[in-house]
From TrEMBL:
Name recorded for this polypeptide: Phenylacetate-coenzyme A ligase
Pfam families given in the database record: AMP-binding, AMP-binding_C_2
Residue runs in coiled coils: none
Function: Catalyzes the activation of phenylacetic acid (PA) to phenylacetyl-CoA (PA-CoA).
EC number: 6.2.1.30
Length: 434
């Protein structure tokens, strides 16, 4: 069993935790209201002042904050401290328009490192580890977050950065890396290259993988664990809220423990904004409780998940979030049916002969949506045997349809023909909006 980094905050009773959350919430609201015009305007519009919030239940009275608020206040309008007190700036990995800018004070950076150290410790990292970071260093919070978390633990960091796959493998062998950090899709890219180069994963020193930054299925976890001979854990975060460090798995891998002394998590109905009862699936909304430079009040993450409040066997009392099903804004609507790419991934990984590389292409033919699933198949399989190929395609199409509820057309593509990713994977090409 791995150690607990901060037993005081990770193992609190619910009563104690809620008391702490309320105190920190009130302090955060006061600071945000006083220093951030956007919050002031929103509260005033509803006739609310921070003093009206006297219980955690009152949180639901407060307005949401959205990515749009951050865009409108680009670049520094949401900062609650003068720029003089900001010591680091990051931005989100937005693909459209201007990125959103986030800032950290010196205290924020220290606190952030501690939160990351928490989930890394929960995943089994110790001061004896050698940690290879394959996230890109730069504006993305992934690399710096895990970097400073590792240093807080006292582990040795190899700041490799993204890409350069063969060099990654050489360093992994020569420096005897014990922990791999990156996106789950890059872990598979590494596994694939290792196989090509004839590197036996058992000859490496790797034991743990800490993956996050994008959604991945349980089936993908199994695939990574088998191909790299490691224990793979999930961790979640977003730059607007802090970066990595919001939540991470313990060795029981039954949901990611949310650092509840630092964040309040709510699940809402993404359509109505109504708070849903415990256990419901909906959109995760996060409020920061300890950030100075960039407090976020009821930030709509757009990530779809559910929360588990039952105690965990590891001893932590914090709520756990299930693997996200994707984002409400990544959700595809095919012929009116809501489809998450992760549902299709789950099916593909369970089918023998499918490589873990796929792409979804959505088109509109006339007035009908058509979803094509391109999948790579393992070397030499089927391409010469039409009958077998057709049977295989039909089997995959049927299985996907039974899970998502709409028909798809599956296309087999040559091994290696789907783009590989060094950072976050982009699996959907929606030609309807192009
Ligand atoms: O991805 C922060 C991060 C870096 C988390 C490294 C974990 C590890 P952004 O670039 O702002 O920040 O993207 C945040 O990525 O809203 C989710 O949609 C998605 N995401 C992050 N982690 C996970 C995960 C970082 N473990 C957005 N599972 C979030 C599913 C994830 N989705």
């Amino acid at each position: 069993m791995s150690a607990i980094w901060d037993p005081q905050h990770e193992c609190m009773s619910r009563d104690e935790l809620e008391q702490l959350q309320l105190e920190r919430l009130q302090a955060t609201l006061n600071r945000a209201y006083k220093n951030v015009r956007c919050y002031q305007n929103k509260f005033n519009a509803l006739g609310i002042v921070p003093e009206d919030i006297t219980s955690l239940g009152d949180l639901a009275k407060l307005p949401f904050t959205t990515k749009e608020d951050l865009r409108v206040n680009y670049p520094y309008g949401m900062f609650a401290v003068p720029l003089r007190e900001v010591v680091r700036i990051h931005s989100s990995s937005g693909t459209t328009g201007k990125p959103t800018v986030v800032g950290y004070t010196r205290n924020d950076l220290k606190y952030w490192a501690g939160l990351v150290a928490r989930f890394m410790t929960a995943a089994g990292v110790t001061p004896d580890d050698v940690i290879q970071i394959t996230f890109g260093y730069g504006m993305f919070t992934g690399a710096f977050g895990l970097h400073y978390g590792s240093e807080a633990i006292g582990a040795a960091v190899i700041p490799m950065g993204g890409g350069n796959t063969e060099k990654q493998l050489m360093i992994m062998q020569d420096y005897r890396s014990t922990v791999l950090v990156g996106t789950p899709s890059y872990a598979l890219t590494l596994a694939e290259r290792m196989e090509k180069l004839g590197i036996d994963p058992k000859s490496l020193s790797l034991k743990v993988g800490l993956f996050g930054g994008e959604p991945w299925s349980e089936a993908m976890r199994t695939e990574i664990e088998q191909r790299l001979c490691i224990s793979a854990t999930d961790n979640y975060g977003l730059s607007e809220v802090i970066g990595p460090g919001v939540a991470g798995e313990c060795p029981f891998k039954c949901g990611m423990h949310i650092a509840e002394d630092a964040f309040i998590a709510e699940i809402i109905d993404p359509e109505t904004g109504e708070v849903l009862p415990p256990g419901s699936v909906g959109e995760l909304v996060l409020t920061t409780l300890a950030k100075e430079a960039f407090p976020m009040i009821r930030y709509r993450t757009r990530d779809i998940t559910s929360l588990v409040y039952e105690p965990c066997a590891c001893g932590r009392t914090t709520v756990r979030m299930k693997k996200t099903m994707g984002r409400s804004d990544d959700m595809l609507i095919i012929k009116g049916v809501n489809v998450f790419p992760s549902q299709i991934e789950e099916v593909l990984f369970a089918i023998e002969g499918c490589e873990p590389h796929y792409q979804l292409v959505v088109e509109r033919r006339g007035t009908t949506d058509v979803l094509e699933v391109d999948i790579e198949v393992t070397e030499n399989i089927f391409f010469d045997e039409m009958k077998k190929q057709r049977a295989f395609l039909e089997q995959v199409e049927k299985r996907i349809e039974s899970v998502i509820g709409v028909g798809v057309s599956v296309k087999l593509v040559e091994p290696g023909s789907i783009q590989r990713f060094e950072g976050k994977a982009q699996r959907v090409i929606d030609k309807r909006t192009l």
